[in-house]
Automatic annotation (TrEMBL):
Domain Acyl-CoA dehydrogenase/oxidase C-terminal: 247-362
Chain coiled-coil ranges: none
Pfam family, one: Acyl-CoA_dh_N
Lineage, broadest ranks: Bacteria, Bacillati, Bacillota, Bacilli, Bacillales
Superkingdom field: Bacteria
One MF annotation (Gene Ontology) recorded for this entry: flavin adenine dinucleotide binding
Domain Acyl-CoA dehydrogenase/oxidase N-terminal: 16-102
Protein name per Swiss-Prot or TrEMBL: Acyl-CoA/acyl-ACP dehydrogenase
Family annotation (SUPFAM superfamilies): Acyl-CoA dehydrogenase C-terminal domain-like (SSF47203), Acyl-CoA dehydrogenase NM domain-like (SSF56645)
Native organism: Paenibacillus rhizovicinus
Acyl-CoA oxidase/dehydrogenase middle domain sequence ranges: 131-219
Family indicated by similarity: Belongs to the acyl-CoA dehydrogenase family.
Amino acid sequence: MMSRFIDCYIRNDEEKNRAELAERLAVRFGERAPRHDREGSFPFDNFADLREAGYLKLTVPRAFGGDEISLYEFVMLQERLAYGDGSTALAVGWHLGQVMHLRTTGKWPADTFAELCRSIVTDGTMINTFASEAASGSPSRGGRPETTAVPVEGGWRITGRKTFSTLSPILDRFVVSAYLPDEDCTADFLVHRSDRVTIVETWDTLGMRATGSHDVVLDGAFAATDKRLTGKGIDDGGGWMLHIPACYMGIALAARDYALAFARSYRPNSLDKPIAALPSVQQSIGEMEIELRTARTLLYAAADRWDKEPAERTKMKPELGLAKYAVTNNALRVVDLAMRIVGGTSLSRSNPLERYYRDVRAGLHNPPMDSSVIQTLAAAALGEIAP
């Protein structure tokens, strides 16, 4: 069994083998990450490797040829992938997470889901949901989409513009949310890429520069009648979204390990030992460990409970939100401490800490946002029955 800090949550040989696969991919992606970050280019090469390795089918049910991994293992693998490249991990996490969500909720028609799963296994198809818009903001805030769907013969014509459309350069199909004026409601539609769908390359950001989260413009894009998704099924509490904090934890672990290696080896000529011997550096390392160990405990405990207690998933939203809140904010602190240990060279564009610093900040803007988590926790506390 592997013995590094990152390995302490591996429980068996099957998880160990998959973890080693993710780490091999992460090494490869880490070598390419500076270029994709610098260019803001989409890492098609990484996704070809993910497809070849069978990574894209990890959350597909076994009945369709997938691995049907648990949420716990999903978190563990995403953490490792992000250790090499946060952008790639976050992007593929949306695909894997969406499939896990559909698997556990049954919200799609059975035939439509089966068709998607088979296509993932045989063709390496990926999926994501495009819901954010400039005017309505994040869908987690409850805004009504300005994208509209109007009925036509055989289906629907969908018109609108979606922002933060991660994976848009590589997807041949995706889900969009749209408002139906005739029914005064919102629904989801499965849309295939066509000449009525245009990608506007707007993604030029501080961090997570290689996720391909461009704007997608739909100009009367067609969705057949049976591609209006029901939205029924059970509430799974949103456990699949733990792929988000898992990604930022992976980045923080990479920053921690870089800082440790630096501290063990760097000896300025004013010292007779490496800086790891300095009490001030040991203080910073200890503080990093507190942040990491606290956050990882919350993250893995939430994932494990979600797996083992399906009847409690709906009630777990405060716990799941807390895991995301703690991991994201603690990861920010870890990267900051790592940069303080390394010093001014951490600001160099050639130093990976500079990229980690930018990438990890994106977690603040992934759902659920801090304010929503705090409100959920407060509501849960106030909703308790007084003794």
